[in-house]
Fold this sequence. Notes:
Helices cover about 5% and strands about 40% of the residues. It is mainly beta. The protein has 2 domains: about 10-130, no CATH class; about 155-230, no CATH class.
Amino acid sequence: MLLKSSQIAALFDGFIRINNFNANANSSNITTAITTPLATAGRGGVSVPLQAATNTTIGVVTTGTTVALFLASSEKPALDNAGNKVYGRLTESSGVYTLNYFSNVAGVETAYTFASTTIDFVIPYRFDFARLPSDFAIAFPINDINIAAGGGVVARQFSEKLTVTATNTLSNLTFTPNFDYNISVEINGKVENSFGGGSASFSRNVKTLIWNQANAGYQILTTDDVVARYTTLE
């Protein structure tokens, strides 16, 4: 006679996905957000309880849990202003589940504050064998689209229009370029690049392009049309 799944005393960790969550401030109460998916998270769509997991009981895994955060609009990783990935740390207290936001700034974990951003993320859940989803081992449904199937990170080409916010001052790039020599700036149809080191028309600090009027031989004005092209790993 075969054993039933309910007779097997074993615990397995899988993932629960939360979509279109509005992150605001440096932490969020996600209790309500995770309640809905738990109602159908088990094998065959059965419910699993909202409770903190232990070594011997099922539930949300909160001990040492780091949560990857992705922009809902693009599934790209959430980034701080310096281009560092933003992540969450999941905690539970008296039945309230909180996601605290951080980024790693020069090797130091630093609190990060979202400005009303819609994100997707997955949290780990410890299942018993009876309710273990059949796809638990592969169901990490959010992916960084810049990860190649063969492994490794692939740079992509990105173009965007920049705003001249003041004379010789440009709005920040959306992403962080991976190589300075892949950056070009087109100003009213004239292409400038960052070759030449100290004699280049512009330099870069993370996502900020710094225009050098003396090297370029002209200034850029708020009425100018500016397009930046560069490669990025983000």
